[in-house]
Amino acid sequence: MARGVAPSPARHRWLLYPFLAPQQINEQALTVLGRTIAGIPRFDVELTRIGWFGDAVVWLAPQPDRPFVNLTMAVWQRFPRPPPMPGSTPTWCRI
User: Fold this and answer.
1) Cα gap 27→31, rounded to integer Å
2) I need a surface site. Which of 32, 45, 54, 72 has the fewest CB within 10 A?
3) Nearest Cα to 76, choosing from 25, 22, 24, 37?
4) What percentage of the chain carries pLDDT values higher than 70?
5) pLDDT confidence of 58, banded at 50, 70, 90?
């Protein structure tokens, strides 16, 4: 880690955004989400490209991106409202 850069707990991969309102995330929703994700075979990817959202958020592009698209679509099929981000399913990892 570069000197002067604070560690960030924000490393994540969005599957579906927006997802549910906080008050809708209950044990039943978490159970359905867990079962949905558990049904997706494990996969390997390489993070092949670095990009930026503005000048504050760096992201990494996975290759292949199809496993993430499939994962996003599986979650969306179980939680169809709201739909995935306009334009396409997200295929990047924010760090």
Assistant:
1) 6
2) 54
3) 37
4) 71
5) confident
Is the Cβ–Cβ distance between 92 and 15 less than 8 Å?
no
Report the predicted TM-score, pTM, of the whole model to 2 decimal places. Answer: 0.68
Q: Answer yes or no: are the C-beta atoms of 51 and 69 closer than 8 Å.
A: no
Question: Can you read off the two tokens belonging to residue 51?
Answer: 């990009």
Residue with tokens 């969306």: 76
d(CA 18, CA 85): 7
C-alpha to C-alpha distance for 92 and 14, rounded to whole angstroms: 8
Q: Is residue 1's pLDDT more than 50? A: no
